[in-house]
C-alpha cells in the first residue's frame, strides 16, 4: 500500500501509458463497463471491472470469477497491476469500477495526498509483512554496516520499521509504532536503509543484507513467508487487512455488493486457506474499521 508516493517522471509516464490516461480517455463519470449510472442505480447486468495486484488479490478475484460469479449473476473482469498507485487512480478516474490491493492506513494517506475519494467496502485478507535475507539466518545477525531495504511509502515503511524494532534490529522513539519514519529511529545500531518501491524490493534482495517485503510481493517472487522470513509480522490485532474499494458513492452498486458478499463467502475462505497454506495470506473478513 502507498502514501508518500515517489513517482519519477519516467514512472509517471509509464503509468499514463499503461492506463491510457490521456485527453481521449473515457470521461470520469462513465465506468469502464460503459454505464453512466453509478451506485445503487448501476446496471446489475453490466460487467464489473476490478483492478488488483496479481497475488493474492488477482488469484482470489479470479477464483470468484471462475467459480462463483456466474451463479451470483455477476460479470466480473479482473485487471492486474504490479503497482500500488495505478489501481487507485484508475478507480478514481472511472477506468475501473473497483480495486482490491490495499489496507486502510495506505488508502487514508493516499486519499489525503492525492485528493481522491476512494472508500473501502469490505475486508478480505491479510498479508503479514516479512523480513527476508540471503545473507543472514536471523534478525539478530544484522549489525553495524548492514543495509536493509524498506518500502518507500509512508504506511508500509512505518510497518517495516515497527517490524524491525519488534525484533530488536533497531530502536524507535517511544510511542511511534507503525507510523514511524526513518527520522523516528532512536538507535539504528549502525544499519543503513535503502528505500525502494515495494514492488521492486524482492528483485533487489541479493543487493542488500536484508529486506522487508510485503506479503503479496513475497509470494509473487516464490518466497515462502512461513519458511523464508527471518522475522514475520504477527496477524493478531493487525490493522492492515486488504479490502475491496470503490470511488465514494459507488458502495451501493449492486454489482459491488454481490462481489463483496462473494469475497466474504465460505468458498473464498477455504480457497485462501488451501492456496496459501504457508500462512502468507490469511482470511480477514468483515467491515472495515476506522
Automatic annotation (TrEMBL):
Pfam families attached to this UniProt entry: Lipoprotein_9
PROSITE patterns: PROKAR_LIPOPROTEIN
Stored InterPro entries: Lipoprotein_NlpA
UniProt signal peptide: 1-25
Keyword Signal: yes
Subcellular location, record wording: Membrane
Recorded family membership: Belongs to the nlpA lipoprotein family.
Name of the featured protein: Lipoprotein
Species of the source: Streptomyces aureoversilis
Classification of source organism: Bacteria, Bacillati, Actinomycetota, Actinomycetes, Kitasatosporales
Amino acid at each position: 500500500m502507498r502514501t508518500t508516493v515517489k513517482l519519477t517522471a519516467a514512472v509517471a509516464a509509464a503509468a499514463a501509458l499503461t492506463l491510457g490516461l490521456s485527453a481521449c480517455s473515457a470521461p470520469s463519470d462513465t465506468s469502464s463497463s460503459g454505464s453512466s449510472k453509478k451506485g445503487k442505480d448501476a446496471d446489475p447486468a453490466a460487467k464489473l471491472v476490478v483492478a488488483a495486484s496479481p497475488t493474492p488479490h488477482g488469484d482470489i478475484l479470479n477464483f470468484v470469477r471462475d467459480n462463483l460469479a456466474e451463479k451470483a449473476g455477476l460479470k466480473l473482469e479482473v485487471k492486474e497491476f504490479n503497482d500500488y498507485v495505478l489501481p487507485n487512480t484508475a478507480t478514481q478516474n472511472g477506468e475501473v469500477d473497483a480495486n482490491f490491493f490495499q489496507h486502510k492506513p495506505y488508502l487514508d494517506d493516499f486519499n489525503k495526498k492525492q485528493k481522491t475519494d476512494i472508500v473501502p467496502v469490505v475486508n478480505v485478507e491479510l498479508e503479514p509483512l516479512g523480513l527476508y535475507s540471503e545473507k543472514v539466518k536471523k534478525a539478530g545477525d544484522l549489525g553495524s554496516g548492514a543495509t536493509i531495504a524498506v518500502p518507500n511509502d509512508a504506511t508500509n515503511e512505518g510497518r517495516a520499521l515497527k517490524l524491525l524494532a519488534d525484533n530488536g534490529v533497531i530502536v524507535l522513539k517511544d510511542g511511534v509504532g507503525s507510523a514511524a519514519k526513518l527520522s523516528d529511529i532512536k538507535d539504528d545500531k549502525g544499519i543503513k536503509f535503502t528505500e525502494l518501491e515495494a514492488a521492486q524490493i524482492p528483485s533487489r534482495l541479493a543487493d542488500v543484507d536484508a529486506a522487508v517485503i510485503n506479503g503479496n510481493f513475497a509470494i509473487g517472487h516464490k518466497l515462502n513467508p512461513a519458511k523464508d522470513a527471518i522475522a514475520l509480522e504477527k496477524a493478531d490485532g493487525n490493522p492492515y487487512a486488504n479490502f475491496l474499494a470503490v470511488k465514494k458513492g459507488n458502495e451501493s452498486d449492486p454489482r459491488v455488493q454481490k462481489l463483496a458478499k462473494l469475497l466474504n463467502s465460505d468458498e473464498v475462505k477455504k480457497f485462501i486457506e488451501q492456496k496459501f497454506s504457508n500462512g502468507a495470506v490469511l482470511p480477514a473478513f468483515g467491515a472495515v474499521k476506522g
